Amino acid sequence: MHRISLAVINLTLLFGLVHTAHASELVYVPNNPSFGGNPLNGPVLLNQAQAQNDHTEKSSSSASGQTALTQFNSMLQSAILSRVSSAVTSSIVGADGQLSPGVVETTDFRIAITNLQGGLLQIVTTDKNTGQTTQFQVNQP
């Protein structure tokens, strides 16, 4: 009988503890500060992301395989072509700011400007060395 009363006491205590346990609603709390989480989580999340990132970015000079001399030469060539382009542009633009139909020739290029009608101009650029051409149309008011 002693064993039964001890088992009853244990069951009574167990049910009493279960009875006093309370449940509450589950509430979602974001971790990321960008979505309303604690701002102190930001550095931790950034460090975790950087630790997982296995992508390595190549530097621009090694990616293109250019040395400093090659890069300088390329920039110098671009600057000279820009000045030539400005000179050609000033020779085909009239005093009124409008393009003038005609032909402009440089050592390497031939630029033909043709009036198509109603203020529409066609510009054809031909590379004298290769024969390649590009063209576009411009509408002048």
Structural notes for this entry:
By secondary structure, the chain is of the alpha+beta class. It has a domain at 66-141. Helices cover 43% and strands 20% of the residues. It contains 4 helices and 4 strands, in the order H-H-H-H-E-E-E-E. It has helices at residues 2-20, 42-52, 60-64, 68-92, and strands spanning 102-105, 109-117, 120-127, 133-139. Strands 1-2-3-4 form a 4-stranded antiparallel sheet, covered by helices on one side. A hairpin with a 5-residue loop joins strand 3 and strand 4 (133-139). The model has no long low-confidence stretch (mean pLDDT 79).
Annotate the secondary structure layout.
Elements: H1 2-20, H2 42-52, H3 60-64, H4 68-92, E1 102-105, E2 109-117, E3 120-127, E4 133-139
Antiparallel strand pairs: 1-2, 2-3, 3-4
Key terms:
141 residues; alpha+beta; 4-stranded antiparallel sheet; 4 helices; 43% helix; elongated
